[in-house]
Amino acid sequence: MNVLLVSPPTDSAIKSIIGTTGPPLGLAYLASMVREEHEVRIVDSLAEDLDFSDVVRIMKRFDPDVVGITSTTSMIYDAYRVAEIAKSLNENSFVVMGGPHVTFVPERTLKECRYVDAVVRGEGELTFKELLDRLERGENLKGLPGLSYRNDGGVVNNPPRPLIKNVDDIPMPAYDLLPMERYRAGNSQFGVVMTSRGCPFNCVFCSSSLQFGKRWRGHSVERVIEELSMLRNEYGIREVEFLDDTFTLNRRRAMEIAKAIVREGLDVSWSASSRVDTFSEDVGREMKRAGCHTVYFGIESGSERTLKFIGKGITLDKAKAAVKTAKRVGLRVLGSFVIGFPDETRKDVEKTIRFSKRVGVDFAQFTIATPYPGTRLWAYGLENGLIRTFNWRRYTTLDPVLRLRHFTADGIVRMLRKAYVSFYLRPKVIVQDLIERHGFIFRRTVRALINMLRESKRANEENEKGSAILRV
Q1: What's the angle, vertex CA 245, arms to CA 285 and CA 212, rounded to 5?
Q2: Per-residue DSSP letter, 393
Q3: Which residues on neighbouring strands pair with residue 365, listed in sequence order?
Q4: pLDDT of 16-50, one tens digit each?
Q5: Which of 49, 54, 128, 156 is the most exposed, having the fewest neighbouring CB atoms within 10 Å of its CB?
Q6: What order of strands is seen across the sheet that includes strand 363-368?
Q7: What is the value of pTM for the model shown?
Q8: Is 218 left (phi over 0), alpha (psi -120 to 50) or beta?
Q9: Nearest alpha carbon to residue 189 among 422, 20, 395
């Protein structure tokens, strides 16, 4: 069968601000699982600058039997449009969707878009492969683990699929089906690698532990090095981001990967995420020696009260110690901070802004707490009637979609802008940026603020047009 895997055309704040986007690794994994039995093509609309007319042209030429679409929450309407295009061109094509959004609202997805035939929930490789096998043999979908589908006017949710125990059994992502030359960081080609799956933690705003399970499963060091070698030697990629939720969860393994990069002579520059309580000087030193330049810490808040609500399981002192350790071994640090939780006061948010400047991070990312489907924050918002809109387009982490007890929607957006201005437009930061990066961060900050203003204005206009959009 002809199988077309699509990342839809959409507006991307990340691409508009930093000028690049990462490869859709999920689609590359799906392709690798089924390419031996089927003719597979991947369309990365963002990277290839495609619009919906291009999608029409590609579908007409390729004539897919199955169209698989991935989507985040904010781009789901664009995914629906791709589904509609597929059915309008061939009503017999089978349209299936996957990704973090539809995993947690499969019934809602199938009700919102009549052009979608099925939803793959959670870890998708084995479910997708079995789905194609059954479709090719003309078999029904009853009992297929991990699948939700239409049946007699209703929706059937088959039982969940057990997690893949040995992730080394998953073939290498089909990088050759992606426009690898399009992924860039500055002047260098850019690649991403996921060395592990699963997260044992349960932060209130994160669905990762539900998408990929609470049991952490890591690739072998040999498999990680094989994938890095392929990216470096076959595609000339020198800049890599490890997409693991917590690269340093198993500190011994993180150090082994770093030592293997050095031992194999891989000339790569890279970054990775860590919790502040899974980082150590030994780990940081080995990461730095292996080419790591930046570590991402989810610090989240400068308020101990807010950290308890998040369920982060860290303290401000641990955050300060981890940042200090990372800087001591020569790593740059990006801190992630979230504001706008339901009970947060202005004092709590001000504490976060002040802490972002005191903790010592080189870069800061500020977002507004967003109740993505599947998260504990989503359940809390539904239970307490705090969700302001089900217009998925606004689930960007830059728009307020929760009703807050101490802020208006405009008020928390103003605090978000204040956080960025307060952190990045400090004289010492501007001077350092001008010296080291020729004003790169300053320009990106100004662009980000402009985009935030535009996005906020557009979202407010959209919300006024239809405040009850898609309430099912």
Answers
A1: 145
A2: G
A3: 336
A4: 444 557 899 999 999 999 999 999 999 999 999 99
A5: 49
A6: 184-185, 188-193, 239-242, 269-274, 292-300, 332-339, 363-368
A7: 0.89
A8: beta
A9: 20
Asked if 96 and 118 touch (Cβ cutoff 8 Å), the reply is yes
What are 58-75's pLDDT values in tens digits?
Answer: 999 999 999 999 999 999
Those residues of the chain that have pLDDT short of 70 are: 12-20, 427-472
With both helix axes pointing from N to C terminus, report the angle between 281-289 and 251-263 in degrees, rounded to the nearest 10: 20
Three-class SS state of 363: strand
Write the CB contacts of 126 (distance below 8 Å, at least 6 apart in sequence).
Answer: 33, 145, 146, 161, 164
Pick the CATH number of 2-157 from 3.30.470.30, 1.10.606.20, 1.10.760.10, 3.40.50.2300: 3.40.50.2300
Token pair for 75: 């781009």
Give dist(CA 193, CA 196) in Å, integer.
9
Q: Using DSSP, state whether 343 is helix, strand or coil.
A: coil
How many CB atoms are closer than 10 A to CB 463? 18
The class (CATH top level) of 183-465 is: alpha beta
